[in-house]
Design brief:
seven-stranded mixed β-sheet, two-stranded antiparallel ribbon, 10 helices, disordered N terminus
């Protein structure tokens, strides 16, 4: 069955205001995430984080924002089938070279995509912050409608325990002389664990969070059944 999801629009499609950044970054992404001093803490334990996400996935996996395909490779190495959705054409080109047709790769984003197979797990790393909190809620609502009972959402991303922690992190970046990091934190839509917890619970998921460095947490939501609701 072909599932078409094109259901939410605003003046600028979700995350498209950031696509130009990734168009320019695609050729050097893999190297820069391991060498940029300002972002060294953001990407600390990068391979471990990706492997942890892959290890929590099962069944057919739907991946959003795969970039150059680093998580996709780990999912494939775990023997999983993957459909990857990416909005940047330059990133898509890099990923296709790396994966050599081992995954289904399509253009789209968190809210606009077409898939042929219902997923058991939906994954993403370092990308969910491109959505506003309103868009995050809409995305989780969509995924809840398609995941089976027991299906998972496993996202690794920068998030904060509280609004105060978020503001303190920006202040620390400024004091350390990391202007690019500080501007990134202010420009994109980083959110808090209480907000994400509410979004997941409102859409029928249990959810837990595990921190892997000063910025990145893994958020794992499992869709509840009727028995779980009682």
């Amino acid at each position: 069955m072909l599932i078409g999801i094109i259901i939410y629009k605003r003046g600028v499609d979700m995350g498209k205001e950031f696509v130009e950044i990734f168009e320019e970054w695609a050729d050097t992404y893999d190297k820069s995430i391991r060498s940029d001093l300002e972002y060294q803490e953001v990407f600390r334990s990068y391979d471990k984080i990706l492997q942890e996400v892959a290890d929590r996935a099962f069944g057919h996996v739907l991946e959003f924002g795969p970039g150059t395909g680093n998580l996709t490779v780990k999912l494939l190495n775990n023997g999983l089938q993957v459909t990857a959705i990416e909005p940047s054409q330059a990133m898509l080109n890099q990923m296709k070279k790396k994966l050599q047709k081992k995954a289904v790769i399509k253009e789209g984003d968190f809210l606009h995509f077409v898939i042929k197979e219902i997923p058991c797990t939906i994954v993403s790393t370092y990308a969910f912050h491109h959505l506003t909190d309103k868009e995050k809620r809409k995305a989780i609502e969509i995924y809840s409608n398609y995941l089976p009972i027991g299906g998972k959402i496993v996202f690794a991303d920068t998030m904060f325990a509280s609004r105060a922690d978020y503001l303190q992190t920006i202040d620390q970046a400024v004091k350390k002389g990391y202007p690019n990091l500080a501007e990134d934190l202010k420009r994109e839509y980083y959110t808090t664990i209480p907000i994400l917890t509410e979004i997941f619970q409102d859409n029928g998921f249990t959810v837990k969070f595990e921190q892997f460095n000063d910025f990145v947490w893994i958020m794992e939501g499992i869709k509840k059944g009727e028995e779980d609701e009682k």
